[in-house]
Design brief:
Layout (H helix, E strand, L loop, with lengths): L11 H12 L7 H20 L4 H13 L8 E3 L6 E3 H13 L15 H12 L7 H25 L7 H16 L3 H14 L5 H6 L8 H16 L8 H4 L31 H14 L6 E8 L1 H4 L9 H5 L3 H10 L15 H7 L2 E5 L1 H6 L5 E8 L4 E3 L3 E2 L10 H29 L8 H9 L3
Parallel strand pairs: 3-4
Antiparallel strand pairs: 1-2, 3-5, 5-6, 5-7
């Protein structure tokens, strides 16, 4: 990224982003984009429900209520699946941390990260304190957030050397959502984007991969940074222009805004672990089913993939964050149990001798051809050698979940139910599902959905 560029007036690309954010109407968005945005919303809510089982989410919710409360006369927002209130940035922090610490949400492969885990918290927090919002407007705001977030990511990755966490750029998408919902002027919006970019957590992703913790992907601080930037800019606080929007070397990322819809280029994760492990998980499940492979018969598991994937944790996990940033563990769980669900990344599973034994027999290998395909693709090849000399191989395969093809509606609904029902029960799961799938129908208010997802578990 250019270190120094004087911009006394808004760059043309900012004006383009401002017009898109302020003036976009639902009828100008392809129906396929709105349809998929509905499924993205449903998926995020399901992950948020399941995220109440993760310790980081509980800590974040308690922290927001205790230390990030709204002041006298200030707007507040409910914590989802909790019901208590915090300030608008506090509510965004709590849900973003809860979502970020269950690695099962959407993403765009070139960004090497995730936007929805920040955007839903920002949308829900802002919407709980603004005048009644239509479901259609809420869904449209989510789409705007995706489009701004991923272009900011695109520009950042192309112009900086470090691999930054998602919070470094999804903060700008949160600022876009807030700027639209609060009706910021172009001048205030420019400052909001500049504040969000300047204060967003440019944390190093691979440091967290090497030492997995509740920091996860930086989104816990990306969301409240974007939200706070909007509130500060609305009050008159100024910020330098956002380089990833206005600098000349970022221009390429914004030229097709409004014509190319990155919202529909996302994947939805079938499994609650790092996307880098998904292709070998798919392969393990396929080989297990096709050949009736028993875990005790396995001598060795070879996983050929790109370098970052092989650098995931390859020992028995010591915590849920470690399990989610593991390669060997979820592949071993797939072979031992025939599934990789939330249960497999919770501590109760870490003592399972069948999974532990397979982890010890797993060998990650960097494949140079696969390495060249990253980050546009998430490829891997799995080979299983059995004790009696048989060899089973998947061949090089792509991770499931999209974007080609996009995950089908039936698949997203099935995943939503699997994540939500164990936490909130079938009746409430059905209620929320129906509200989301009709969220943008004529006359629908977003508050109805917020009421359903804010009630405590």
């Amino acid at each position: 990224m250019t270190d120094f560029q004087v911009l006394p007036s808004p760059a043309p690309m900012f004006m383009k982003v401002a017009r898109f954010t302020r003036s976009l109407v639902a009828d100008a968005v392809p129906s396929a984009v709105m349809d998929f945005a509905r499924l993205l919303l449903l998926d995020l809510i399901g992950v948020a429900a399941a995220g109440t089982r993760i310790e980081a989410g509980r800590i974040a919710r308690d922290f927001a209520v205790s230390h990030w409360a709204a002041g006298p006369g200030a707007p507040s927002a409910r914590l989802l699946f909790d019901g208590r209130r915090a300030s608008v940035p506090g509510a965004a922090y709590a849900l973003a941390t809860q979502l970020d610490n269950l690695d099962a949400h959407d993403g765009w492969q070139p960004s090497k990260g995730h936007a929805g885990a920040a955007l839903l918290p920002a949308l829900a927090a802002f919407a709980d304190g603004v005048p009644p919002l239509s479901g259609r407007e809420a869904l449209l705001s989510l789409v705007i957030g995706y489009e701004v977030s991923y272009r900011a990511a695109w520009a950042l990755h192309a112009t900086t050397a470090d691999y930054h966490t998602s919070g470094a750029w999804n903060a700008l998408g949160c600022a876009a959502v807030g700027a639209r919902l609060l009706g910021l002027t172009d001048e205030a919006y420019r400052h909001a984007l500049g504040l969000a970019e300047f204060h967003a957590p440019r944390s190093q992703m691979m440091r967290e991969i090497a030492n997995p913790s509740m920091l996860h992907d930086g989104t816990g601080w990306g969301a409240p940074t974007g939200v706070s930037s909007v509130l500060l800019a609305k009050a008159g606080f100024t910020g330098a222009p956002a380089a990833v929007v206005e600098f000349d070397d970022a221009r390429f990322a914004w030229e097709d805004l409004g014509n190319r819809w990155i919202t529909n280029e996302q994947y939805i994760k079938p499994y609650p672990v790092c996307r880098w492990a998904h292709a070998p998980i798919d392969g393990a499940l396929d080989l297990r089913q096709k050949h009736a492979i028993k875990p005790e018969s396995i001598e060795c598991i070879e996983i050929r993939s790109f370098k970052y994937a092989t650098q995931l944790w390859n020992d028995v996990p010591t915590s849920s964050p470690v399990a989610q940033y593991s390669l060997a563990w979820p592949v071993a769980a797939a072979l031992a149990r025939g599934r990789v669900t939330v249960e497999e990344i919770l501590p109760a599973s870490f003592t399972d001798p069948a999974i532990r034994g397979l982890v010890a027999r797993t060998v990650p290998i960097v494949d140079e051809a696969i390495e060249r395909s990253y980050p546009q693709r998430r490829l891997a090849c799995l080979t299983i050698l059995t004790r009696d000399g048989r060899r089973y191989e998947t061949g090089v395969r792509e991770a499931s979940g999209g974007p080609v093809p996009l995950m089908a509606k039936s698949e997203v609904v099935t995943k939503f139910r699997a994540f939500a029902e164990p936490v909130i029960g079938r009746g409430r799961t059905t209620e929320i599902e129906e509200l989301v799938l009709s969220v943008d129908a004529p006359g629908r208010r977003f508050a109805s959905l917020l009421d359903a997802i804010a009630r405590p578990v």
